[in-house]
TrEMBL record:
Gene Ontology terms: cellular component: mitochondrion
Annotated protein name in UniProt: Sulfite reductase
Record's keyword annotation contains Magnesium: no
Coiled coil region boundaries: none
Molecular function (Gene Ontology), one example: molybdopterin cofactor binding
Transmembrane intervals: none
Ranges for domain Moybdenum cofactor oxidoreductase dimerisation: 248-340
Cofactor: Mo-molybdopterin
Sorted UniProt keywords: Metal-binding, Molybdenum, Oxidoreductase
Length: 359
């Protein structure tokens, strides 16, 4: 990797991992325990960028109260130059802002068959993880994953953990969009958003974007913590026997209908509307059906610039008066299509009424 001259960091002598001194910045866990704030219904998520008040919150073991003056981030493991950095030093580094959808996978203890639409679209600002790794000089022959530790600890679903720990493959860690972030929508990260610093992995489920970040470590294997082994693994839909599991990492194509609103009365023979589609890869097609999937009409999709959710709009002919179920089906650039039923990202259904459709 490229050398970085005179970076504002404190290099650590020796090649071993560093004791947990970065955890000294933790003041308290308050409130303790699991917390979720559900988002509003899809038809209320009508801003291009989701404001804080409308963005869901998921906290597994409690919210970490962090002293920003004592906060530090350690980067170690299979690297030649382990180092630590404080908040002021982090802010002196090259920054990047990325607009990205932010989606919660849903419950990791229940089957992934329900589309919960815990989704928003925000602007993150921070330092690319790629840049931090370039300072540390990781061993790319041995280092296959980057582990990330949060300052939170406690119990979730009956299992205790001394830290929230996740991992990501080194190739994703080196992608330029992955950030060690300290701002959301132009404001410093609050405690509830994982401040003062969190990891942000655009295109992946929010569970991977470790909040209250304090430690990154390049390792040869996956993390053995409960949030990678017990929780957040799902049956691989490509396994015909329904046995093999895969990590909850990349977001598959998903969509939601914002307009018309549920139970809205449309006084026209053409149903017009719009919605959002998103996924780890760019969505290249959205189709709309009014007849339970028998026929589909292609919508207009706005191309993606970064990792933001994509606007789609449609106009579909309604052949009669009565009740209709609008469905939207997204397809990404690799050809992966949103399923009709049985998966957490199945197509949305919005019930509306159509009147006065005669020619």
């Amino acid at each position: 990797m490229a050398d970085v001259s005179s970076p504002p960091v404190t290099f650590i002598a020796g090649s071993g991992d560093i004791p947990d001194r970065e955890r000294d910045a933790l003041v308290d866990i308050h409130p303790k325990g699991f917390f979720i704030r559900h988002p509003p219904a899809p038809h209320e998520l009508d801003e291009a960028v989701t404001p804080e008040i409308k963005l869901f919150q998921t906290i597994h073991m409690g919210a970490a109260v962090v002293d920003p003056n004592r906060w530090s981030l350690v980067l170690d493991g299979l690297v030649e130059r382990p180092f630590s950095i404080n908040l002021e030093q982090l802010r002196q580094m090259p920054t990047r802002s990325v607009t990205s959808f932010h989606e919660c996978y849903g419950s990791p203890i229940n089957p992934s068959t329900k589309n919960v639409w815990r989704i928003g679209n925000v602007r993150w600002t921070g330092v690319p993880l790629q840049y931090l790794l370039s300072i540390a000089w990781p061993n790319l022959e041995r280092g296959s994953f980057v582990w990330s530790d949060g300052l939170d600890s406690g119990a979730f679903a009956g299992i205790s953990a001394d830290r929230y720990q996740k991992d990501l493959p080194i190739d994703k860690a080196l992608s330029p969009e992955v950030l060690v972030a300290y701002e959301m929508n132009g404001q410093p990260l609050t405690k509830e958003r994982g401040g003062p610093v969190r990891l942000v992995i655009p295109g992946w489920f929010g569970t991977n974007s470790t909040k209250w970040l304090c430690h990154l470590s390049v390792q040869a294997t996956r993390s053995r913590g409960p949030f990678t082994t017990v929780f957040y693994n799902e049956i691989d839909p490509a396994d015909s026997e329904g046995v093999r599991k895969r990590p909850v990492w990349r977001v598959e194509p998903n969509s939601m209908i914002v307009r018309p609103r549920p139970e809205e009365v449309v006084l026209a023979k053409y149903v017009e509307g719009w919605g959002r589609a998103w996924g780890a890869e760019e969505i290249v097609r959205v189709e709309i059906s009014l007849d339970h999937g028998e026929t589909w009409t292609e919508a207009t999709v706005v191309p993606r610039k970064e990792f933001e959710w994509q606007l789609f709009s449609f106009e579909v002919h309604a052949r009669r008066s009565g009740k209709y179920h609008i469905q939207a089906r997204a397809t990404d650039q690799s050809g992966t299509q949103q399923p009709l039923l049985g998966r957490r990202n199945h197509v949305p259904n919005v019930h509306i009424w159509v009147e006065s459709t005669s020619a």
